[in-house]
Design a protein that fits this description.
- By secondary structure, the protein is mostly helical.
- The chain has two domains: 137 residues, Tetracycline Repressor, domain 2, CATH 1.10.357.140; 130 residues.
- Helix content is 68%, strand content 0%.
- It contains 15 helices and no strands.
- It is globular, with a radius of gyration of 23 Å.
- The N and C termini lie far apart (68 Å).
Length: 320
Amino acid sequence: MSDATPAAPRGSEATGHGPAAPESSARGRGGRFAAGALLRAARPKQWLKNLLVFAAPGTAGLLAEPRALAWSAAAFALFCAASSGTYLLNDVRDATRDRMHEHKRTRPVAAGELSPALAAGVGTALLVAAPAAVVPAGNRALLAVLVGYLVLTTAYTLVLKRVTVVDLVAVAGCHVLRAVAGGAAIGVPLTRWFLIVVSLGALLVVTGKREAELRTPGAATTREALGRYSLSYLTQVRTMASAAMIVTYCLWALESPAGTPYPVIHGISIVPFILVVLRYHLLVDRGVGEEPEEIALRDRPLQLCAVALIALIGLGVYLE
């Protein structure tokens, strides 16, 4: 590819036509480009993780109540804002490393499409606005969980992401706090079964993500802790987490409370639950687990199993 710059058409400098027109047009559209880059940097696909706030109200059979649904939706929106704020600040901090990564170099800040100052400013505003929005409502439980999430994500960005094993637990903890927030938002207590399954599921997904990242050439140089893992170790952790999670879920599904009219529905839900786990393992082994949200959005067999699982859980809860 030649470094020579094509000569400008005659008269273009004198008349202001030719190349000058596209430059003027680009300036006019700069605001739209910045807005688009900012939206991509906020990673809206990652908001899928925040759907965990609906898990506790849903399994408690409360999503049919307008108040519970409204608070769950509010918690979802707040976690979307908070998580996007952390992504923006993290991208500013890691821009240099991201430029050396095969996929992360396309992120708006690393690619030079978004100003670090703008990303940092919007990210900070989102982090402040999310907990501030809860204060007038007086929901102290939700506020505490949201602040805890922000503290954990900040600690992860500054310190924990460089500590082997602890980084896995920290990211998994962020997922668990999303699920806890759903219960805190409407004041529903969380069962031990719920917490164990969610915690192990979060560890499974995070470990699968790290394993896929480690398979990416050169990725270990962009994440300090990643290079200290081995594929065999991450596979063992993934296997352990999924095995314990399946056992826990089976115990919950087969332990029907007294008076449950359709106990068999919970039992049947074990089948799609195990299929979801097995499908995820297969995809990680194929090396496509680096972006879990992409798997959820694109893998049709996984989607069908997940829909069947949610439907059976919903029937088991709402038909009681």
